[in-house]
Design brief:
This protein folds into three domains: 152 residues, MgtE N-terminal domain-like (MgtE N-terminal fold, Alpha Horseshoe); 120 residues, Roll (CBS-domain); 170 residues, Tetracycline Repressor, domain 2 (Orthogonal Bundle). It is built from 22 helices and five strands. The strands form two sheets. It has a three-stranded mixed sheet. Helix 17 packs parallel to helix 22 and helix 21 runs antiparallel to helix 22. It comes from Pseudomonas fluvialis.
Length: 480
């Protein structure tokens, strides 16, 4: 696929978003104008205008995939979002609720009454219901569970019994099982009788009469082998399997490593109880990535970009408070050397460079370490080795770029001793940044916390205070 072809769907989606925004703008504009009019035809004109704009908007929404509608809803302010949501056909509500972010889903559910929520939920599979259930009102969940058949109810309860970061919470119950002692021709006839195959069916699961998994039959083997052969002759008897108690992110990494589309989930006795599919794994990886970025920036949770001011304040205040404390500490460090700065004003101009480069270097180190931890490439046992490597990188960068800025400072201020202090301070602060870049995530990991949690805030605090202290301290010792 060419680059132009690859970009076309995304560009098309952005065009549709622009069209929806334009229609909403026209709708509001004409609505305001008609409200100002008076007379016997006012209501008729207003109703006609409403219908013209909203019918066109609904037509555009009907043309879009549920995931694209979800993207548009996330990109709209709350009032416009609810206007668009009211135009979505009821039979599509469930699919779209599953596609939008948690923060946006909360606003959509708040705009629905219990009957609308129940109608949307009844169209979902058991694993999808389990995803949505924690966000629904208790009475709605109770009524929904009562309306399910025994098998569906048991499946939902099973999925809800696992933590959200476990395989069991993500497994799908819709799958095709066959016996190993039947011919491929029998399997083909069986498949033809089904209305449709579950999504992402690239293999059939071979079980015995007790439901114990014996192997898998990839669809491609089913199609290319002699129909008279038995399933047991052509199946793969060593598939990648998962346990419902396993970490879901580990499973996602296995999907990427082994290029899986679906995989069986078995209990401790080897009984097939569900399957994982690639769509769930992709969603999980995306959510994990977003969570990591938010944590590094000190945000407590995902935030609706159009959320209310107070809700956003509640999400962001904690690490800002921490940052305020660390900034105050940095200012006190500078205060210790007020006399030195008064005697050599050049120090005030140069010290932000030392702190800024240190912060950038520390963020590079911490990002590499957090990524390696997320990919299970390193653990706490590698701390010493990683520290030696990062300190080596910092030393070389410090001498190289510290030397460059030292020469520049020496020329600008006609003081080679100032240049030497600048080089030394830059090198020492980069070493401090490298040390903290390893110790912060590794310490958080050892404590059982998210290694990315507030990492960017903490590393910046360390390199700012440390950089100011090192540079001003060296200047006081050797220049004054």
């Amino acid at each position: 696929m060419s680059e132009v072809e690859a970009k076309k769907p995304q560009e098309n989606l952005q065009d549709r978003l622009a069209q929806v925004v334009e229609l909403l703008h026209r709708h509001r504009l004409v609505e305001e104008l008609t409200h100002r009019q008076e007379g016997q035809h006012h209501d008729r004109v207003e109703n006609l205008v409403h219908r013209q704009n909203l019918v066109e908007l609904q037509r555009k929404l009907d043309e879009l995939h549920s995931a694209d509608v979800a993207h548009i809803l996330e990109a709209l302010p709350l009032h416009d979002r609810l206007t668009v949501w009211q135009l979505v056909r009821a039979e599509r509500d469930g699919d779209i609720l599953l596609e939008v972010s948690d923060a946006v889903r909360e606003t959509l559910l708040a705009d629905m009454d219990d009957h609308e929520i129940l109608a949307a939920a009844r169209e979902m599979d058991a694993d999808e219901l389990a995803d949505l259930a924690p966000e629904l009102p208790r009475d709605v969940v109770h009524e929904l569970m009562e309306s399910l058949d025994a098998q569906q109810r048991e499946r939902v309860r099973s999925a809800l019994s696992y933590d959200e970061d476990q395989v069991g919470a993500l497994m799908d119950f819709e799958m095709v099982t066959i016996r190993e002692d039947v011919s491929l021709e029998v399997v083909l006839r069986y498949l033809r009788r089904l209305k449709e195959l579950p999504g992402h069916t690239d293999k059939l699961f071979v079980v015995d009469y007790d439901g114990i998994l014996k192997g898998v039959l990839p669809i491609k083997r089913l199609l290319v082998n002699d129909p008279d052969k038995q399933v047991g002759e052509v199946m793969a008897d060593d598939p990648v399997t998962f346990n419902p108690d396993e970490d879901a992110y580990d499973a996602a990494q296995a999907f990427e490593r082994y290029d899986l589309i679906s995989a069986p989930v078995v209990d401790r006795n080897g009984k097939l109880i569900g399957r994982l599919t690639i769509d769930e794994m992709v969603d999980l990886i995306r959510e994990e990535s977003e969570s990591e970025v938010l944590n590094m920036a000190g945000l407590r949770e995902e935030e609706d970009i159009f959320a209310s001011v107070w809700k956003s304040v509640g999400n962001r205040w904690a690490w800002l408070a921490v940052n305020l404390v660390t900034a105050f500490v940095a200012s006190r460090v500078i205060g210790l050397f007020e006399g030195s700065i008064e005697k050599l004003v050049a120090l005030a101009a140069l010290m932000p460079i030392v702190a800024g480069i240190g912060g950038n270097s520390g963020n590079q180190s911490i990002t590499m370490i957090v990524r390696a931890i997320a990919l299970d490439q390193v653990g706490t046992g590698n701390t010493a080795r990683l520290m030696r490597k990062e300190l080596g990188v910092a030393l070389i960068n410090g001498l190289l770029w510290g030397g460059v800025i030292g020469v520049v400072a020496g020329v600008l201020y006609d003081s080679w001793s100032l240049g030497a202090v600048m080089t030394a301070a830059m090198t020492l602060n980069l070493l401090l940044a490298a040390l903290m870049g390893v110790l912060i995530p590794m310490s958080l990991l050892r404590l059982g916390r998210d290694p990315a949690m507030g990492a960017s805030v903490m590393i910046t605090a360390m390199t700012d205070s440390g950089g100011f202290f090192i540079f001003l301290g060296l200047a006081t010792l050797f220049l004054l």
